[in-house]
Amino acid sequence: MGVHVKMKELAYYDKKLNAACATKTMYEKRFAEYKKNVKRINRKITVLERAQVFLQMVAKQTQEKLKFRIEPIVQLALDTCWDKEYEFAVDFEIKRNRTEASLNFMAVDKEIKYAVDPVEEDAGGAIDVASFALRLAAWSLGKTEPVIVVDEPFKWLSKDLKFKAGELMMELRDKLKLQFIMVTHIDDMIDISDRVFIVTKRQGISAVKQKV
Fold first, then answer.
1. What is the pLDDT of residues 36-59, one digit of tens each?
2. pTM exceeding 0.85
């Protein structure tokens, strides 16, 4: 009787041992697969980290190129109208995992610089000049056809500065080899034009005539 019981116990424990061995083998296989996955993931992480470093280098070079191409043109425009009363800078910062450009204006008063809101300065004239220059800077980056159409440029610029804006257009025209096609009713802008066309509208029909 006692031997029979012991044989049953041995069979029970043998069964438990076999089940445990099978479980151990299963977990060993899973562990081996997990190790492979970890190695594969680590390799991917390494590749992604290297790619990120490369992209950061490219982004930095691109940002420096943009600053080099944009800032001088806008600064020239502001200096022409205000004789170094403003400084313009493009700064890049990461927001929501995206690189965004920040356009900053600084007023210069006896070598003291302070940030200003260009909308509130000169009744928006600084925005007029800067936006015009930014458009030229954008053109210089893409270098499409050397023709730019502008509609009522410098309309918020004060009257005493409009002639300077005209000088600015002529200087940029010569430096960048550009042709401007301008829609305007401002005399200072009309006076600098090489050719002037007058558009009139009668009974819904437009007529164009060159001014002699």
1. 888 888 888 888 888 777 766 766
2. no
Per-residue pLDDT reduced to its tens digit, 142-163: 767 888 888 888 888 888 888 8
> What is the DSSP secondary-structure string of the chain?
-HHHHHHHHHHHHHHHHHHHHHHHHHHHHHHHHHHHHHHHHHHHHHHHHHHHHHHHHHHHHHHHHHHHHHHHHHHHHHHHHHSSSEEEEEEEEEETTEEEEEEEEEEEETTEEEE--TTTGGGGHHHHHHHHHHHHHHHHHH---SEEEEESTTTTS-HHHHHHHHHHHHHHHHHHT-EEEEE---HHHHHT-SSEEEEEEETTEEEEEEE-
Q: What structural domains and CATH numbers belong to the chain?
A: 57-211 (3.40.50.300)
